[in-house]
Amino acid sequence: MTHGSVLSVLIAATVAASAWESCALFQQRIPGLTMSDANLVSVLDSIDQSEIEAARLALDKASAPDVRAFAGRILNEHRAFAEANTRLATELSLQPAPPALASDLKQAHLNALQTLRAKSGADFDRAYVQYEIQQHVQAFNFLEAAAESQTNAALKQELIRTGPDLLSHISAARALDRHLGSAPPNTVASR
Questions:
Q1: Alpha helix (H) ranges present in 62-152?
Q2: Are 176 and 70 in contact (CB under 8 A)?
Q3: Residue 187's pLDDT is what?
């Protein structure tokens, strides 16, 4: 194994560890998920902002046209989700209030972005797509759990409406991952 391939394996392991760390944060907090409506909107905002930042990075660094196209889709759709969250918060007179989960997710995201920034070319493409799979699986699991425990009908409806879009992102990312020849990440449950 060459020095470059050893380095690639180490970097891939670091990205996977960062994704697993943020996934573990969700898993620790999902059972018995109870948070205020303002907390929930804040977590949704954090998820969308993280996706927007990662997509912007991918638009700058991705080498494969398919990865850039996927990043463009993610950027546009998560901007639309963020706008819908803002409209909903306004309609419900909610001021987003970040729970501890939001800051934990933000830190895990910043760690993953730092790792992604160190990559280039095909290594970046594979790592970004794997990161997106991880992020979307955990976001979907969060939305599903939040919808089950939500008593506010408008918020519940928004969570349920967003779920299929996240599943579509997962499906597209997994197809892209197969196309790029990446090994399936061990930390992602099949859906």
A1: 65-91, 100-117, 121-149
A2: yes
A3: 43
